[in-house]
Amino acid sequence: MTKAKQTPIVTNNVEIINARIPGYQGLQMLLVNQEGIIEQILPMNKVVQRSPTENLQVIDVAGDWISLGGVDLQINGALGLAFPDLRADNSHLLVKTSQFLWDVGVDGFLPTLVTTSVENIQRSLAVIAGVIPNQNPGAKILGVHLEGPFLNYGKRGAHPAEYLSPLTIDNIKRVLGDYAHIVKVITLAPELDPTDEVIPYLRSLGIIVSLGHSQATANEAQRAFALGATMVTHAFNAMPPLHHREPGLLGAAIIHPHVMCGFIADGEHVSPIMLQILLRASQQQKGLFLVSDALAPLGLPDGVYPWDSRQIEVKNGTARLADGTLSGTTLPLLVGVQNLVEWGISDVETAISLATEAPRQAIGLPGISPTQPANLLRWRWDEATKELTWERLNQLTVNS
Asked: Residue 205 and residue 226: Cα distance in Å, rounded?
């Protein structure tokens, strides 16, 4: 894994040839201009021979996969910073976190605020709102994900019960305050709103509604989808299991053509066998994307760390409360890609797409295509070792 600065990959036009690209058939050529923008993507059999005098450099990736960097729609912190703990005097840590995420292959992310006091939420939103317009090189903050406080008590998981809130429009307004414009996603339990007014209200603000930490039945979930919910938060976790008589929230989501489910591929949150079932069941809808659900110790060694007023213990990248409750992971997003391939439950193209293309689709961003910045990753599959590795393409030697 290679650390890289966010700079154009070359100082003149570059042609990347013999590339495999998620969503494209066969080998492709990418033409990147001097500003680091993708100008063309063409099949190799349609590439016109360039004149030797053209201001052009060539990278032959010899059939390796090329993608944009990852997008993490659910990440709770890194480098010791929990996003709900943001304050004016530690906002520099958010900038530092952005650079760290860039170094581990992430192009953009949604700082996720888990259930806490309204005061803490407002303080963190204020800091993030101040950083967004002045972002430095690094992974870009694409908005905020509010994971709570409108969650079902019975499926709250590690979320503190004292800060859970009834799901009403008045309470939504109280939590959002003046910062609705930076909130991209909110996770809620739809069964807490018998009026059916909250989801349409959030959609009117341009906020994506994700169902999670919920006891919703399939019928309740279907009603929420009809009202405008389009996502599900960490599939399988903090929701009823799939059952042959009551498929529940997740069953309703899997068969819905316009709903996308985030999921964690650390091997702890969900069994690899269940992930294989999820991938097969969702193959036609393609309604899945990877998230890290990483906590503040992301980027730090295993150990015991503070988590709101409690402590979590991190072992082998998994974080648990003292009572054993699973609270999250400390593995970067792209480890999930590697896991899916190395476990043998996904092909390389699909796994890469789940962390790069699918999250962008979930929040309405374009995938790899002309006019997009060429923040590119190169992925290599080693058949002998059965390992998938990646590196930022702008760290590779450019061959003239």
From this structure: 17
